[in-house]
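step=encode ok
step=design start
structure_in=
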């Protein structure tokens, strides 16, 4: 039995392709893995706070020296990290916004990429001081984009700061087993969008049955 963490980050509701695809993914997954459990988090419509000065002061104070106020400053971060640690599988929906991720998703990442909880710093190891603390997790990313051609060598490949960024940020904390599905052409012809959705759905069927 596995535990899934399902995260959406589009501010859109019914019109959101990433939201629809993550829902279809999780429903299909539950059909073929009926004993698996799911936690849902919506950072698109219920954004998490940005990190602020008390957060930074707390995160860089050793736990044994933190005051109650400093612990409180990290309470959202701790809750989000506990939720992440509890998951075996992540299913995340991420629109492309200005070639990267929405700021709400960045705010989420800033809360979960935290020294001492999701990565460690070893000052003795000058070559490689940063050590990921998460292991064995699998992640499925479903992106949605207005255009297409963001793959390596394609016309907009050099402008894609979404896939590489997600791989670097999650890889830094130890989530390296990442499978991506893309829904593209939201801003182009309805035929090209429909073809992209059908392609994503075929991938979802294959991945969730595996
Ligand atoms: C603020 C904003 C920025 C966007 N930037 C891009 C972009 O850089 N590249 C792109 O292909 N589409 C871009 N789009 C289009 C969205 O990626 C597209 O509509 C996608 O389907 C949104 O995800 P959703 O359907 O899950 O809401 C942008 C849309 C918005 C609202």
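sequence_out=
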């Amino acid at each position: 039995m596995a535990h899934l963490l399902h995260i959406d980050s589009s501010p859109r509701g019914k019109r959101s392709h990433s939201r629809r695809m993550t829902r279809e993914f999780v429903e299909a997954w539950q059909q073929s893995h009926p004993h698996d459990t799911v936690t849902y988090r919506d950072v698109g419509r219920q954004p998490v706070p940005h990190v602020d000065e008390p957060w930074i002061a707390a995160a860089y104070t050793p736990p044994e020296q933190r005051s109650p106020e400093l612990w409180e400053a990290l309470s959202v971060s701790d809750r989000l990290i506990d939720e992440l640690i509890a998951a075996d599988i992540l299913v995340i929906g991420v629109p492309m916004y200005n070639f990267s991720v929405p700021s709400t998703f960045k705010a989420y990442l800033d809360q979960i990429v935290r020294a001492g909880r999701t990565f460690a710093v070893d000052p003795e190891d000058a070559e490689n001081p940063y050590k990921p603390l998460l292991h064995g997790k699998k992640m499925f990313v479903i992106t949605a984009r207005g255009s297409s051609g963001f793959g390596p060598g394609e016309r907009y490949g050099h402008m894609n700061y979404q896939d590489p960024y997600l791989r670097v940020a999650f890889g830094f904390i130890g989530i390296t087993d990442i499978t991506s599905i893309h829904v593209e052409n939201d801003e182009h012809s309805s035929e090209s969008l429909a073809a992209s959705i059908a392609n994503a759905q075929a991938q979802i069927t294959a991945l969730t049955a595996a």
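step=design ok
step=annotate ok -> The two ends are 15 Å apart (CA to CA).
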